[in-house]
Amino acid sequence: MPNLPKENFIFEPEKKDVGPAIALAAGILNQKFPQEPIVILWSDHLVKQEEKFKKVLKTAGDYIQNHLDKIIYISHKPRFPSINLGYIHVGEKATHLEGVDFFKTEGFKYRPDAVTAQEFFQSGKYGWNLGYFVTTPKFIMDSFKRLSPNIYENTKKIISHWGKDDYAIFLKENYGRVEKINFDNAILENLDKKDSLAIMTDIGWSDIGAWEALKEALEKNPQENIIRGKTYLEGVTDSLVYNYENKKIVVMVDLKETIVVNTEDVLLITNKASVNKVKKIVESFEGTEYEELI
What we know:
By secondary structure, the protein is an alpha/beta fold.
């Protein structure tokens, strides 16, 4: 990190979800390197097979250099029928490059119910959507211009001040003037199928930004309990218990598939399958006496 030039850091002054953030970063890159392959990744994931992951990204970048009008989705072969992840419907094989298969994409499904997730898992035609994309800044900005013109025009106005003395002030004043929207909803779900390909692979990936995913990443078998801090468990299976209070012991009896996280200001107790509801609950605290917890 210390070796990266300061101008390479791009910040958002407020949270407007991933759509506007990607537009801002891609817009700035588009000024300097419009047709250079870029990859969009998230920081709170675990990838155990690093060399394989690097090869997949490099191969996708090599493909993009010769197909500037495309976006490549990196999907993961499901290890289990998760209901807390999005899925990419992978179609027939389109091409093969440097030992990596590229497939046509047939659509997306965000957090299916248990029955649908099981069908996806058994079909072998659906991969977890990691939120990893390889494309070019120009492709992203052209897509925003066509599919989300409000974000495009606002971003264009902001990046016209990039590198100028008033950029930080202008960014703060204008960034929040667009809707709060995910990149998937703003762009990906509206792209033509012909604009994208997918790579489905196994890189030992886990989204450890979610508690149930952290449990799955750390466990040696599904029935194992993952515990930290002072705890006492009896008759408990397939659960994660994190206790951050030294003066209190967390006691659990005859429970399964449960997440318990105890901190000084919050006690979270939820079923593993319900962890995806926590984000909305936290967001609902805005404007209430619990707003400081957001």
